[in-house]
Amino acid sequence: MTPEMISLLVFLATFAALLLAQPLILARAKGMQYVTGNRAHPVDADAPVAGRLDRTVRNSIEAAVLFVPLVLATELLGTSNVLTQWGAIVFVAARVVYALTYPLGIVGLRTLAWNAGFAALAAMALGLVQG
């Protein structure tokens, strides 16, 4: 299995962990009735960690829209190279840091992780184009 595919699996595992943590954190903040209800009202200021976790999940979906096609294109075209490999590894490492720092409210490191992840996606795209 290529480093890009391993990175994709780690990214998906991180995303799954976020999805599993979200209702647990929300239940602690808002109660089980809110979690099992239709959630018609957004998470408000009395549950800041739950709100940040929700935004982390949403941002991870946006990141997946860019990362998954890059990995799949690299695999299908057989263009795995140092840029696509290290881009995928750095991207996933940055996303793990992002997933930990955003819910905890660690702003500076979160921003650094997001920027590193975006730069890693650019490196992957460049590696894909260069073949």
Q: If you had to describe this structure to a student in words, what would you say it looks like?
A:
- This protein has 131 residues and is mainly α.
- The protein has one domain: Membrane associated eicosanoid/glutathione metabolism-like domain (Four Helix Bundle (Hemerythrin (Met), subunit A)), CATH 1.20.120.550.
- It is 84% helix and 0% strand.
- The chain has five helices and no strands.
- Helix 3 packs antiparallel against helix 4 and helix 4 packs antiparallel against helix 5.
- The longest helix is centred in the middle third of the chain and has 30 residues.
- It is elongated.
- The two termini are 18 Å apart.
- The mean pLDDT is 92.
In short:
The chain is built from five helices and no strands. It is an all-alpha fold.
List the keywords:
single chain; MAPEG family protein; Membr-assoc_MAPEG; transmembrane helix; 0% strand; Four Helix Bundle (Hemerythrin (Met), subunit A); 131 residues; mainly alpha; transmembrane; membrane
Distance between the termini: 18 Å
| Percent helix | over 70%
- Total of domains: 1
Order of helices and strands: HHHHH
Number of helical runs?
A: 5
CATH topology: Four Helix Bundle (Hemerythrin (Met), subunit A)
| Name of the level-1 CATH class | Mainly Alpha
Architecture, according to CATH? Up-down Bundle
Shape: elongated
CATH superfamily: Membrane associated eicosanoid/glutathione metabolism-like domain
How would you characterize the largest beta sheet?
none
Output mean pLDDT: 92
* Uncertain residue ranges: none
Strand content: under 5%
Q: Give the beta-strand count.
A: 0
Radius of gyration: 17 Å
Keywords: Membrane, Transmembrane, Transmembrane helix
Subcellular location: Membrane
GO cellular component, one term: membrane
Protein name: MAPEG family protein
